[in-house]
Design brief:
The complex is a heterodimer of chains A (75) and B (277). Chain A is 9% helix and 27% strand. Chain A has 75 residues and is mainly β. In chain A, strand 3 and strand 4 form a beta hairpin. By secondary structure, chain B is of the alpha/beta class. Chain B has two domains: 68 residues, no CATH class; 201 residues, Rossmann fold (3-Layer(aba) Sandwich), CATH 3.40.50.720. Chain B has eleven helices and eleven strands. Chain B starts with a helix and ends with a strand. Classes of the chains: A mainly beta (75), B alpha/beta (277).
Chain lengths: 75, 277
């Protein structure tokens, strides 16, 4: 099973080289993927899977697009 | 002479027939009619459009914005909180578009660190209050706009008054601290809110209709990425353009596909994602 990963702003440096085909285990959650790429849960403010809001406990499916977005508030 | 008749007469008197554009009003004529009638420029322009006379300053809007919609913009009132990076370029764009009334607030003055991205920051305006600089700039660009700018730090209480009678409010705040209070005040006063924020190459906008929740709760109030990444001018201008686009869409149609969503953008990867929140 593989997903596509996107990391924004301060999380972007954690994006792995294989982000377009990132392998996951069956029933693997968002928080597990985040930790595998070195992002602590409290660094993430908005999670989305396939353009809908998701959560740390959301289980990922084959082909999902996962986005991780931190607190952003500049103007 | 009745005021309406006087206005109609003056619009006829000052209008010029141009070969490809039809009846038009040059910018200086608006100011002359305003001086004679005590009407605001936006009121004169709206009446001119109703009579089939195009104010020349909007002639290049007219190919893409209908006369009905241009009149809606002229007769609209927009409130904007923040006149820094997002706010400065946003009020300039709104004035060029022909949004009739703009009320803005910012407590700050320009400092050297603003020069990389804030459209109203220049060598001449360093140290000056942002609200005052914005007032001068808007008067230079489009004196038809009724622009009111306050040098004030809005708080939970004054925010509600500030939003009264606005058709839309734009959140151009710097930092996350006051964004939740603004969302709540907009909801309380029943005013749709368009929020924008950025850090480095990344940004987002959100359109929040009253009673819906927006990004403020999701983003929290601290550890914001802009402390680490700063704010780049192209990201500022892009996010501002998206905010103004939302504003125009809401003023003209009353609805937007961004409502209930966040539109995330990243210029480093040329990503755009519309996320249901």
């Amino acid at each position: 099973m593989k997903i596509t990963l996107k990391c924004f702003a301060t999380l972007a440096p954690h994006l792995p080289d294989n982000a377009d085909e990132f392998p996951i285990e069956p029933n693997e959650t968002v928080v597990s993927v985040a930790q595998r790429i070195g992002i602590a849960p409290d660094e993430i403010n908005l999670i989305f899977v396939n353009s809908a809001r998701a959560y740390l406990e959301t289980e990922l499916q084959d082909g999902d697009r996962l986005g991780l977005f931190p607190a952003v508030g500049g103007g | 002479m009745m005021k309406a008749q006087q206005l109609a007469h003056l619009i006829r008197q000052f209008s010029e027939d141009l070969p490809t554009k039809g009846k038009t009003l040059p910018p200086k004529a608006i100011a002359q009619i305003a001086a004679e009638t005590n009407l605001r420029g936006w009121q004169i322009e709206s009446q001119a459009l109703e009579r089939g006379v195009m104010p020349l300053r909007y002639s290049r809007n007219a190919q893409s914005i209908t006369i009905t919609d241009q009149r809606k913009l002229l007769e609209s009132s927009v409130a904007i909180v923040g006149l820094g990076g997002l706010g400065g370029i946003t009020v300039e764009t709104l004035a060029r578009l022909g949004v009739g009334r703009i009320r803005a607030a910012d407590h700050d003055s320009f400092e050297p660190g603003n020069l990389n991205r804030q459209a109203l920051a220049s060598m001449d305006t360093l140290g000056q209050p942002k609200a005052e600089v914005a007032r001068q700039r808007i008067a230079e660009i489009n004196p038809s706009v009724e622009f009111e700018a306050q040098t004030v730090r809005l708080d939970d209480e004054t925010m509600t008054d500030f939003l009264t009678d606005a058709d839309i409010v734009l959140d151009a705040l710097g930092g996350l601290e006051m964004r939740r209070a603004l969302e709540q005040a907009a909801s309380k006063t029943n005013v749709p809110l368009v929020s924008g924020a950025l850090a480095g190459w990344t940004g987002y906008i959100a359109t929040i209709m009253p009673d819906n929740s927006g990004p403020a709760q999701i983003m929290g109030t601290n550890n914001a990425a802009e402390e680490k990444l700063g704010c780049l001018p192209m990201t500022v201008n892009y996010v501002s353009a998206l905010m103004v686009n939302e504003c125009v869409r809401l003023l003209c149609t009353g609805k937007s596909p961004v409502s209930g969503h966040m539109l995330l953008i990243d210029l480093a990867t040329l990503t755009q994602e519309l996320v249901l929140i």
